[in-house]
Amino acid sequence: MPRFRSTLLAAVLLAATTLAGAAPQYVEVGTALPRFHLLKEGSHRYLRYLRSAEGNMAVDIWQRDIHFDGKRMQIRQRWDAVGKAHSVKRLESTFETATFRPLTHVRITEKDGRKTVEGFTFAADRITGMAELQDNAQKNLAVESKEPAFNFETDMELLQALPLAEGYEAQLVFYHAGGSAAPARYTFRVAGSEAIAGPAGPVDCWIVTTDYNQPGSVSKFWYAKGTQLMVRQESTLPDGRTLVKTLLN
């Protein structure tokens, strides 16, 4: 009996060590995502605000819409700024259904009477400006990517389609279209779980964290365990303030 217990204990310790040292799962662009079915057609709105020792300051209302059209999925986003300075930003992105492989991405920003149009096409080895898009300020863009990249401006829904669970880690290649940073791998970890307030009451959530490849910084996401819809996100900014995104409906 003592020998059996010691063998069992050794097996448990080995399993725990293996789990703790397991490498993040690389999510390759173009492969079917295990929980893609959790993405549903419809709209969700979030309030974005800045939190500091002095109080809270509203930034904007953020709407995200999902639509399916055959083998393609479309995600539309809109930010309406809060306050005297009127500004609106709209994004329209298309993807391959089931894999979330990005196809096109259009960004339109209107601020202080000025309109800026940016459009991009994603391919396996590069991201380029859409030459056929009228007034495209990014038509000459050509960024090479050593690995196929996901669209960084739709990471919220992409994480929703992953198999979130205790101890799960995912490594994904992201690119923010038109940004200064090159396509790169980022790691997202399920750090635990917590029940937090939601629009209709408490929501049991997975806590997902990342440092966006900036050691020392931490962004936290709360994803509802049932739907894997993002309920909240908090990111600490370089100036010490915290950017909060919280689900309204």
TrEMBL record:
<dbReference type="Pfam" id="PF11306">
    <property type="entry name" value="DUF3108"/>
</dbReference>
<feature type="signal peptide">
    <location>
        <begin position="1"/>
        <end position="22"/>
    </location>
</feature>
<dbReference type="InterPro" id="IPR021457">
    <property type="entry name" value="DUF3108"/>
</dbReference>
<protein>
    <recommendedName>
        <fullName>DUF3108 domain-containing protein</fullName>
    </recommendedName>
</protein>
<keyword id="KW-0732">Signal</keyword>
